[in-house]
């Protein structure tokens, strides 16, 4: 019995080691600080992986040229609140959420995060970009990836992108630490700024 346990343990360690050594290493995400006025539609990635879909979506199909769009980059707790935006306010323009998960370890991004994001986005009609490699975060010069913080960007008709708001939600918002009034208050500045 002892030998069987040793063999099983060595086998498991071997498989984990082999997986770790042969798995595709994540791309290092280096967010460059640049002039905020340089953000534009042209700098966005050409296509995206959306949560809950198998096919990549072209930039032109997600962000219509010549029209305004709201882009909100968040992580964990903040996305749990941001997804409620249409529940509390009448959205006049389309918006897209970006899951800022590029700094997570590669095995977590591959094994755990996709199902958690699908769960989080369930029941909404808002597209959520699964930013695995951080291309969207880099294009928007987002350097903050705390789970309670989010950044809102406005894509204008002329293709320029402006960072209009940086917000924060309570820790544990994903697990229900915020009531309806607190969620509404956390999102109100975005609505005021896109009017």
Features:
Glutaredoxin; five-stranded mixed beta sheet; two-stranded antiparallel ribbon; alpha/beta; 8 helices; 36% helix; 195 residues
Describe the overall structure:
With 195 residues, the protein is of the alpha/beta class. It has a single domain, classed as Glutaredoxin (3-Layer(aba) Sandwich), CATH 3.40.30.10. The protein has 8 helices and 7 strands, in the order H-E-E-H-E-H-H-E-H-H-E-H-E-E-H. The protein has a 5-stranded mixed β-sheet with strand order 5-4-3-6-7. The chain has a two-stranded antiparallel sheet with strand order 1-2. The chain is globular, with a radius of gyration of 19 Å. Mean pLDDT is 85; it is low at 27-37.
Summarize the structure.
It contains eight helices and seven strands. By secondary structure, it is of the alpha/beta class. It has one domain (27-194): Glutaredoxin (3-Layer(aba) Sandwich).
């Amino acid at each position: 019995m002892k030998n069987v346990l040793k063999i099983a343990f060595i086998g498991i360690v071997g498989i984990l080691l082999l997986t770790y050594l042969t798995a595709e290493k994540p791309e290092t995400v280096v967010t460059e600080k640049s002039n905020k006025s340089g953000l534009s539609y042209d700098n966005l990635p050409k296509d995206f992986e959306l949560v809950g879909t198998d096919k990549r979506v072209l930039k032109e199909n997600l962000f219509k040229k010549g029209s305004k769009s709201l882009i909100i980059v968040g992580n964990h707790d903040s996305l749990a609140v941001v997804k409620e935006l249409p529940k509390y306010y009448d959205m006049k323009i389309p918006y897209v959420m970006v899951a800022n998960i590029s700094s997570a370890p590669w095995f977590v991004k591959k094994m755990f995060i996709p199902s958690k994001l699908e769960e989080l986005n369930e029941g909404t009609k808002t597209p959520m970009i699964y930013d695995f490699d951080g291309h969207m975060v880099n294009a928007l010069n987002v350097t903050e990836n705390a789970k309670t913080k989010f950044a809102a960007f406005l894509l204008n008709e002329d293709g320029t992108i402006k960072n209009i708001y940086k917000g924060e939600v309570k820790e544990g918002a994903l697990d229900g630490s915020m009531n309806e009034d607190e969620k509404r208050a956390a999102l109100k500045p975005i609505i005021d700024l896109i009017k």
